[in-house]
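Hi R.,

As promised on Friday, here is the backbone we talked about, encoded as structure tokens. Could you run it through your design pipeline when you get a chance and send me back a sequence?
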């Protein structure tokens, strides 16, 4: 089942959000899929067909990403993304239960939404799905390198992000995609790895303005939301992480699971950060498990 473009959402401060949907508008539950940093909603394409047979499925490109509008540097924060998610839910899914599924930055966005809109969260959210994400900023990110080397890389990365944040809506030429693929293959993927998945990821990264790549970095690195997670209402929740994830290693997922003791935690052997592409069946089955558990809860109650 293919995704269909929905009317764009114009946010209060100006940017527009590109929204797509699949499945029936009359479905008993809606699954909202949130993508990772400098990616876009296409990364979930392998999960959509199975989900749409049971639920309505919504994806959208976050501000400053994909086909959504560019942003002011001061709006490149996780807090703003949490507020944007609240706007998407009010506009596109005004009624009915929702399951929020977030990869990387998308998972952090869900946590920020829960922190900033706790009453709405408690009323609307029937299930959670965290994929290759963290509640502790860059605390555990060492890029698969020795700690002392990772510290130097982070210093360089932070300085580079400051420069990129000033470049606004500028994007590199598409020809840069070929040069980018080897580094993305190493950083984001485990084994085995389909070259088509690396290509899809590289195209998404190239589409992101450099201002977004650099602008979100301080907020992403600083976020701390374990206390927010521990205070959430209990809903069906699954947490997945790749064993070889260099950005959000298994310890990130384990700390989330400790804050949500009723959640199920799955560590996928040899996989990296892009689990929805690397292990599509595992991710789809886990998502469907959350959907069915959420639908079953009212009957059990």
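Update: got your reply. Pasting your designed sequence below so it's all in one thread:
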């Amino acid at each position: 089942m293919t995704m269909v473009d929905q009317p764009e959402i114009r946010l209060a401060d100006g940017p527009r959000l590109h929204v797509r949907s699949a499945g029936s508008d009359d479905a008993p539950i809606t699954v909202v899929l949130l993508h990772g940093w400098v990616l876009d909603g296409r990364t979930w394409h392998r999960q959509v067909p199975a989900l749409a047979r049971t639920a309505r499925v919504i994806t959208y490109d976050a501000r400053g990403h994909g086909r959504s509008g560019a942003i002011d540097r001061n709006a490149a924060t996780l807090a703003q993304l949490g507020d944007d998610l609240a706007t998407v839910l009010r506009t596109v899914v005004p009624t009915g239960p929702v399951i929020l599924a977030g990869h990387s930055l998308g998972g952090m966005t869900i946590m920020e939404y829960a922190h900033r809109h706790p009453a709405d969260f408690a009323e609307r959210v029937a299930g959670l799905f965290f994929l290759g994400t963290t509640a502790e900023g860059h605390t555990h990110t060492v890029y698969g390198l020795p700690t002392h080397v990772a510290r130097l890389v982070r210093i360089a990365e932070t300085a580079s992000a400051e420069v990129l944040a000033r470049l606004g809506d500028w994007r590199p030429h598409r020809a840069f995609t070929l040069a980018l693929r080897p580094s993305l293959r190493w950083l984001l993927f485990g084994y085995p790895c389909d070259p088509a998945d690396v290509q899809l990821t590289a195209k998404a990264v190239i589409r992101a303005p450099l201002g977004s790549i650099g602008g979100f970095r301080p907020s992403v690195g600083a976020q701390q939301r374990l206390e927010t997670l521990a205070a959430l209402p209990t809903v069906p929740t699954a947490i997945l992480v790749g064993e070889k994830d260099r950005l959000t290693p298994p310890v990130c997922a384990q700390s989330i699971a400790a804050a949500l003791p009723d959640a199920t935690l799955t560590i996928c052997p040899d996989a990296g950060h892009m689990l929805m592409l690397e292990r599509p069946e595992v991710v789809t089955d886990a998502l469907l498990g959350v959907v069915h558990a959420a639908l079953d809860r009212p009957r059990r109650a």
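One thing I noticed while checking it: The first helix runs from residue 48 to 52.

Thanks again,
M.
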